[in-house]
Design brief:
This protein is α/β, with parallel strands linked by helices and 282 residues long. Helix content is 46%, strand content 12%. The protein contains 9 helices and 8 strands. Strands 2-8-7-4-6-5 form a 6-stranded mixed β-sheet, with helices on both faces. α2 packs parallel to α3, α2 packs across α4 and α7 crosses α8. The radius of gyration is 19 Å and the shape is globular. The two termini are 34 Å apart.
C-alpha cells in the first residue's frame, strides 16, 4: 500500500490561499463557453453556445464527470478555477472555527463542500478517481465536481504509483483546489452485502482512524467527516454513526493530538442519530 511519503512529491500538496470573487452570470457564461470549446473538441462534438448559462453549466458538469484524467492546459484550469471559486463563494463558506466543540467534536448539518476546514473527508470508491456517472448526486461526485479536474488528475497519479485499487479502510490526501477546505482526504468504506459483518465494522472504523492519522501526518488542525459507507454502500446509518463516534473519540483520547473534528450530516435522520450517539457515548 502506498504511504504519504511514497506520493507526496508526485502531486502538489502545498496549500495556497484562495480568492473568492463572485462573478456575474454573464462572466460565468463566457467562462462556460471557453470550457465547453475545449470539452466539446475533446469529444469530437460541435459547439452550441446559444444555450442559456444554466444549461451550459449542466453540460460542463456532466462532461467533466465522464472525462478521463487527461492533462489540461493552464488556460483551461484558469477558466475552471475562476468559475468554480465564484460558485463556491455563492454557495456560502461556513467557518468551522465558530462551531461549538465538546471534547474536540462538533456536529453540523449541511453541504460539506461549504466547510472552511483543513480537510474534508470524501467517501471514495476503490479507483479513487471519483464518480464517472454524469450528474450523479453521490458525495464523491459532488466533491470532485466542485473541487475541479485537478483532484482526479492527482488521484490518478497516486493510483498510477500504487499500481492497484485503493484498499478499503485506508486514506489518501489531495489539495481541495476550489473548495473552501485546504485538503480532501479520500477513504474507501465497506460496501455491505446482505448484512453487516465484523469485517465491515473493522473497515469502517479504519476509515476514520486512517483519515485522522493522515491529518496528523500533515499537521492539520481540523477535519470534517461525512457519513462514510451509508447510502448506496448499505451500512445502516445508526450503526455507522456509533462506529464513527467511537473510533474518533478513542483516537483523540489515545493520541492527544489537538484536532477539531466535525461530523457532517446531510439528512435530518443522520443529524438526529448523531445527536443521540454523541449524547450517549462517553
Amino acid at each position: 500500500m502506498l504511504t504519504l511519503d511514497d506520493y507526496k512529491n508526485s502531486i502538489d500538496l502545498q496549500y495556497k490561499e484562495k480568492e473568492w470573487k463572485i462573478l456575474s452570470e454573464s462572466e460565468k457564461s463566457d467562462l462556460c463557453d471557453s470550457l465547453l470549446s475545449v470539452l466539446l473538441e475533446e469529444r469530437n462534438e460541435i459547439a452550441a453556445f446559444c444555450y442559456p448559462y444554466s444549461v451550459k453549466r449542466e453540460l460542463i458538469w456532466g462532461y467533466l464527470n465522464q472525462r478521463q484524467p487527461n492533462p489540461v492546459s493552464k488556460e483551461f484550469l484558469q477558466w475552471q478555477d475562476e468559475l468554480f471559486t465564484s460558485e463556491t463563494a455563492e454557495r456560502g463558506i461556513v467557518d468551522t472555527e465558530k462551531f461549538t466543540y465538546e471534547s474536540g467534536i462538533a456536529l453540523w448539518r449541511g453541504d460539506i463542500t461549504r466547510l472552511q476546514v483543513d480537510a474534508i473527508v470524501n467517501a471514495a470508491n476503490n479507483s479513487l478517481l471519483g464518480c464517472f456517472i454524469p450528474h450523479h448526486k453521490c458525495i464523491d461526485n459532488v466533491i470532485h465536481s466542485r473541487a475541479g479536474v485537478q483532484v482526479r488528475l492527482d488521484c490518478s497519479k497516486i493510483m498510477g504509483a500504487q499500481g492497484e485499487a485503493e484498499p478499503s479502510g485506508c486514506a489518501k490526501i489531495t489539495l481541495a483546489y476550489n473548495l473552501p477546505s485546504k485538503y480532501i482526504i479520500h477513504t474507501v468504506g465497506p460496501m455491505v452485502a446482505l448484512r453487516v459483518n465484523d469485517n465491515d465494522r473493522r473497515i469502517l472504523r479504519n476509515c476514520y482512524i486512517s483519515s485522522l492519522n493522515l491529518a496528523r501526518a500533515m499537521f492539520l488542525k481540523s477535519i470534517a467527516f461525512c457519513c462514510i459507507s451509508t447510502g448506496i454502500f448499505g451500512f445502516p446509518n445508526d450503526e455507522a454513526a456509533a462506529i464513527a463516534v467511537g473510533a474518533v473519540k478513542n483516537w483523540l483520547l489515545e493520541t492527544k493530538y489537538p484536532i477539531k473534528v466535525v461530523f457532517n450530516t446531510y439528512l435530518q435522520k443522520d443529524q438526529e442519530i448523531y445527536e443521540d450517539v454523541l449524547k450517549n457515548t462517553k
